[in-house]
Amino acid sequence: MSVVLEQIFQVGFLAAIIRIATPLAFATLGEMFSERAGVLNLGIEGIMLLCAMTGFTETSLSGNLWLGVMVAVLTGMLMGALHALFTVVLGLSQHVCGIGVTLFSSGLAYFLYRLIFGQQSVPPSIKGFQTLPIPVLSDIPVLGPAVFNQFTLVYMAIIAIPLAAFVLYRTPWGLSVRMVGENPRAADSAGVSVIATRFQAVILGGALMGLAGAFLSMAQFNAFTFGVVSGRGWVAIALVVFGRWDPWRSAGAALLFAFVDALQLRMQASGLGHIPYEAFLMLPFIFTIVAMAFMSRNAVAPSALLKPFRREER
Amino acid sequence: MFRLEVRTSTPAWFNLVLPLLAIGATLILCSGLIALAGAGVLESYGVMFTASLGDSYAITETLVRAAPMIFTGLAVAVAFRAKFWNIGAEGQLLAGAVASCFVGAIPMPGPLAMLLMAIAGAAAGAVVALVPATLRVKFKVDDVVSSLLLNSVIYYALMALIEGPWKDSFSGYPISPPIEDSANFPVLIEGTRLHLGVIVALITAPSIWFLIARTTLGFRIRVTGENPEAARYGGIHVERVLLSTALLSGALAGLAGVGEVGGVHFQVMSDISPGYGYSGIVVAMLARLNPLGVVPAAIFLAAVMTGAEAMSRATGVPAFLSDVIQGTALLAMLVALLFTAYRIRRVGASR
């Protein structure tokens, strides 16, 4: 046990947790905005993959990392708009559309990647983001190098969490988002456009999913592979529920999952423990399913989640 | 001005026309990608067609690939009929594959092994599907999310098996030991891979249609899906119907895994299903949740998958086109379904 504890309090381990948590935090916040407005986006898994691909491609062609991030975000917004068009404007069933968007975007990602790069024995890579130590703060012992000597995208994720909470709880637009997710009929009576608000929230969610994808292919792996997302989108779906649709709790859930994941990687590498590493990877899903059973009694999910809104139907 | 008007009923020919419309739109949309790859659209689709349905061998290959999607398509169709949102066919398939592989590795007479493999696989799938259904019935947990998340749980359980106790100690590959030779499903036509499981899939579809359309359980499933309040008022135990539906749906998805183990791979590996569970959703929607429609819909998707590889070799268009076609077909079908809910009416300017 003491060996495990020693591992935990290493700078490298803390830094790894933060790095693993970053794409999950972006994705989880993105899914949260969408769901708070009443739209479940199961397209997340495919959207992240497509964004990882487009961002990587842009960077490897132009050599500009931030241009790549921008393209990834735009891709995410575009796919968000597609999902919103189907589920919000046309009122089609959200879960089936989401699966459709995931199948479509991941197919498109594979197709375009193969078309642009062909089949190479060694997958092309880029010179990804380098860590950017923040002066003074990065000199704090342990915490400094772990938290303040990271990629810029990591800092963006850290800022995104309070920002998301502020937008959701302290701005008129955030109020609209919560209203259309809880009681669209009332929101409509109060003069809030349900369709427009939901559309915006899903697109914002897509943008955040784009950042998640960009981080994976441009900071974490510096390459695009077909398994670059490998279920992180589904993890985000679980974390939103586990984090009770709240930015702080969702980000906390992402951090907790990252901790378990980093621990699992360490134990695999050091040959410690006889528990199969898959057991750890299963945990967030099992926890979420169990948590859902306990939570549903006090109904924390946005009430209008999965319900399309049509003005003329009463 | 045009406005949308709610339809109360849809003509029967919609069942045929809407999927064809969706598939047509899909092929037109995806032809843009073929053009982008610098290949001839008609030529590419032509190669796709000949390579998947052009001769008898190609047809058997397509049918082999269609079989698991017939099962997952039926699983989803049955579940969605009762508005049990089973997104978990993928996990149920994997559970079925694992269970049947366990049984198939035990030495026993062939026919008995095959029967027990099917029973074990169906049971495993059913148990997995029962989880989201029970959570929904007992705890009001949303079945969409819980059934989806279970896919990941089952996937990691499978990985733990093939990288742990099942791992091939000789080669070190993460694959399960093969099932007994006697448990391999018999091949029906010499020189092809057309196995017994394909025929079982083709027989299961009309049986499920009969069950849904003509039996009491089928009636209960339909009423529960269409109007649970009315069902309850009519004395139907809605919760029990949902659980039965889950058992049936999960068993069907489990059988998809059994077929892959017994008839195609004879063992379990991490990529035993290239997303057949999710394809089942596409199949079921294209079939408009009609079990009889599941067969042509699954054959269409299988043909696209089989044909895409040949198309890729002949024209250089990436074979991943088949994945794009699958996703596009699902979205196009959803849009086409709007015609069943609404009709577009011209209304005068004097409103």
Please characterize this protein's 3D structure.
- The complex is a heterodimer of chains A (314) and B (351).
- Chain A is mainly alpha-helical.
- Chain A has one domain: ABC transporter involved in vitamin B12 uptake, BtuC (Orthogonal Bundle).
- Chain A is built from 13 helices and two strands, in the order αααααβαβααααααα.
- In chain A, helix 2 packs antiparallel against helix 10 (194-220), helix 3 runs parallel beside helix 5 (94-117) and helix 4 (65-89) packs antiparallel against helix 5 (94-117).
- In chain B, helix 3 packs across helix 12 (291-315), helix 4 packs across helix 11 (276-286) and helix 5 (110-139) runs antiparallel to helix 10.
- Chain B has a single domain, classed as Orthogonal Bundle (ABC transporter involved in vitamin B12 uptake, BtuC).
- The longest helix of chain B is centred in the middle third of the chain and has 30 residues, at 110-139.
- Helix content of chain B is 71%, strand content 3%.
- Chain B has a two-stranded antiparallel ribbon with strand order 1-2.
- The termini of chain B are close together.
- Chain B is mainly alpha-helical.
- Chains A and B meet through helix 5, helix 11 and helix 13 of A and helix 5, helix 6, helix 11 and helix 13 of B.
SSE layout and pairing:
The complex is a heterodimer of chains A (314) and B (351).
Chain A: H1 2-8, H2 11-36, H3 44-62, H4 65-89, H5 94-117, E1 132-133, H6 143-147, E2 149-150, H7 152-170, H8 172-182, H9 184-189, H10 194-220, H11 232-242, H12 247-270, H13 277-295
Antiparallel strand pairs in A: 1-2
Helix pairs in contact in A: 2-7, 2-10, 2-11, 2-12, 3-4, 3-5, 3-10, 3-11, 4-5, 4-10, 7-8, 8-10, 11-12, 11-13, 12-13
Chain B: E1 2-6, H1 14-36, H2 41-53, H3 56-81, H4 89-104, H5 110-139, H6 143-163, H7 196-214, H8 216-226, H9 228-233, H10 238-265, H11 276-286, H12 291-315, H13 321-341, E2 342-346
Helix pairs in contact in B: 1-13, 2-3, 2-12, 3-7, 3-10, 3-11, 3-12, 4-5, 4-6, 4-10, 4-11, 5-6, 5-10, 7-8, 7-12, 8-10, 11-12, 11-13, 12-13
